[in-house]
Design brief:
Layout: H1 9-31, H2 38-45, H3 49-55, H4 59-82, H5 88-104, H6 109-116, H7 121-145, H8 150-169, H9 174-192
Helix pairs in contact: 1-2, 1-4, 1-6, 2-3, 4-5, 4-7, 5-7, 5-8, 5-9, 7-8, 8-9
Length: 193
């Protein structure tokens, strides 16, 4: 029987699966989706290639799991930051600040790499669906603020937010970038009412 490195077999399996996902995330961000192979991921995680298949039937299945985990973690952070915020302006602030904090932590890199990757159609569709769900709180807050076309406004704010996240990932202070982004956003939304 193989050695386990946890109190239970279930915990050991969860640790091994998490190690494979971490390894796949690193490879995805560094080298792209095509480099996420069972051999590369297993080697990076310190597991035999055959062990990979105990957790995922294919690279595509691993990428699908990576998609789900990447967005789930970000969505949980967003939900926590919005909890108790009733006013749309406060929700906008919380959403923007949380996105920039996540960018500073590198949490957006896997999602960004997935958006650029040549994924199977099913994975691309799921990434797009999860991306829309992720931005739903932003759309809701913007719609409540009252611009004429909330969907287009959210799309444009998403571009501003992406530029802000890029600045943070390039080393800019998230607090400074957040203040500047929110000032631009408030001015723009005020002008659209």
């Amino acid at each position: 029987m193989p050695k386990i490195s946890a109190a239970t077999v279930a915990e050991h399996r969860a640790q091994q699966r998490a190690a494979l996902i971490r390894a796949a995330t690193d490879i995805l961000v560094e080298q792209g989706a095509a480099a996420v192979t069972p051999a590369a991921v297993g080697a990076r995680a310190g597991l035999a290639r055959s062990s990979f298949y105990q957790y995922f039937p294919s690279s595509a299945a691993l990428l699908a799991a990576l998609v789900e985990e990447s967005f789930t973690a970000a969505n949980t952070s967003i939900a926590e930051s919005l909890e108790g915020e009733a006013e749309p302006a406060a929700r906008l602030d919380a959403f923007i600040r949380t996105e920039l904090r996540l960018a500073a932590q590198g949490m957006h890199r896997p999602a960004a790499a997935l958006m650029r990757a040549d994924l199977p159609r099913e994975c691309r569709d799921r990434v797009e669906e999860l991306h829309q769900l992720h931005y739903a709180p932003l759309l809701s807050a913007i719609a409540e603020v009252g611009p004429v076309n909330p969907r287009l406004t959210t799309q444009l704010v998403g571009g501003l937010l992406q530029a802000a996240m890029n600045a943070v990932e390039d080393g800019a202070d998230p607090g400074d970038v957040g203040e500047h982004t929110l000032a631009l956003l408030r001015l723009g939304l005020h002008g659209l009412r």
